[in-house]
Every structure is written in structure tokens, then in C-alpha cells.
């Protein structure tokens, strides 16, 4: 029985019970889709400071090997930023909510929305950030994020400014909200579209997907893996999954236990 008969929550040991009967079969039959920020790496006040430590890099390499390469990152970050965070490791990955994707052969596939359409939005967002201490802009070129982790009382104002800035940009762009961040991102792609594309390619093809995520954008990833009969693991309490891991440390403990299991 690959999937649990009902949804529940628990810690890393409780979730690992689902795999303990046949860990070798799980590793051979499943594939893994991992969010990064808030899932594997704790949030930082400034997103630039979020970096993987050597233990996480080694863990991800071991996991990719144990899953025979059927492991991919799905993130709102740029691929280039993910590579910096995890250097020297480069994994199959989707960045910018599906806008760019690196397959298992290392080929990068990108959609190209008109970046100039963001110019007016970029200006109004910059003016707002300049006038409010603690608000940080993360300009991704074809997407713009406004972080307010250092100024949580400004959350409502940040959302208002971003929705106003994005007015008239639909369907080219859409607003995505997350943990202490609100973003204007290209429309038509998501973590779900990225997962669907990976699932059409070896070594993901014909495997059962497992997704780990912590934020609102991961709900679409969870829906995608459920369409393929897979499993959704929520990290933290912002969203619901088939199981819940308390935080990124618990997520890393779960992954360590899984890939460190001796084949049966």
C-alpha cells in the first residue's frame, strides 16, 4: 500500500512509519519535489542571507542518488539564486513558479513574458519601499517580490501596493502571497505546471510524486501530486497536507531518515 488510507499529522518519526515497511520500493517507485525557503532552509530577515549549509547540500545529493535522479526543487527563486544557495550542487529545478525549469539533462527551459510590462509597477513598488523602513524589494527581472519580515505591521500595506501595481497586468502577471512576502509573478505558470512537466520525463515518468512545501504557492504543487496519486507533506502550519512536519529542521530529519534507510 503506497498511500496512507487517511490524512493525519505527526512528527518525522510518525511520518517515516509510512515508509518503513518497504523503503527500497518507495525510493524506487517515487519521485520527490522540494520547496526550499521555509521547507529546507529557515526564513531569514533578508532573503539574500538564506543559504544551505554543508549538511543540507550533502543530504540533497544523497537523496538525489537514492531516488535515481528523480528529485527536483520547485521554488519561487531564480534558478541562478538556487544554484548560489546550494553551491556547488546543481539539481533539476523549477524557478520563478514554473517560468524557468532545468531538466535532468541540465537543459534550461524558459518562458519569456514581456519584462517591460513591469516597469511602471517596479517604480511604484520602489517608491513605497524607499518610504518604509524594513521593507525589502527582491527584483527577479521578470518578477518582483516585496518582503516585510522586518516590518510585519506593514503587511496589509504591502499587499495593497502590490495589488495596485499589478492592476491591468493580468493575464501576463499575477499576484502571489507568501510568508511575509507578496510578489508579482508571470501568469500561466506555477509549481504545479513545473511538476506536470517533470512528470512527463524520465526519471520522474511513471513514478509516484511526493511534494514538500510550506507556503501558499505550494498548495498548487500539492494538487499536482495528488492528481498523480502522490503525497503532500506540509512543513509548518500555513497550509495543509496529507502529513505535517513542524518546521524545516523536522523536514530535513525526515529526509535524512528516508534516504538513510537500509534497503529491505
Keywords:
264 residues, Rossmann fold, Alpha-Beta Plaits, 8-stranded mixed beta sheet, 9 helices, disordered N terminus
Offer a concise description of the structure:
With 264 residues, this protein is of the alpha/beta class. Helices cover 34% and strands 20% of the residues.
Q: According to CATH, what is the topology of the largest domain?
A: Rossmann fold
Helix/strand-derived class?
A: alpha/beta
Order of helices and strands: HHEHEHEEEHEEHEEHEHEEH
Q: Uncertain regions: pLDDT < 50 for 5+ in a row?
A: 1-10
Determine the strand fraction and express it as a percent band. 15-25%
The CATH C-level name of the largest domain is Alpha Beta
Give the tally of β-strands. Answer: 12
- Major sheet size, sense and barrel closure: 8 strands, mixed
Average pLDDT number: 88
Task: Please describe what this structure looks like.
The protein is α/β, with parallel strands linked by helices and 264 residues long. It folds into 2 domains: 12-111 and 189-259, HAD superfamily/HAD-like (Rossmann fold), CATH 3.40.50; 115-186, 2-Layer Sandwich (Alpha-Beta Plaits), CATH 3.30.70.1020. It contains 9 helices and 12 strands. The strands form 2 sheets. It has an 8-stranded mixed β-sheet with strand order 5-4-3-2-1-10-11-12. It has a 4-stranded antiparallel β-sheet with strand order 6-7-9-8, with helices on one face. A hairpin with a 2-residue loop joins β8 (173-178) and β9. The longest helix has 13 residues, at 54-66. It is globular, with a radius of gyration of 18 Å. The model is unreliable at 1-10 (pLDDT under 50).
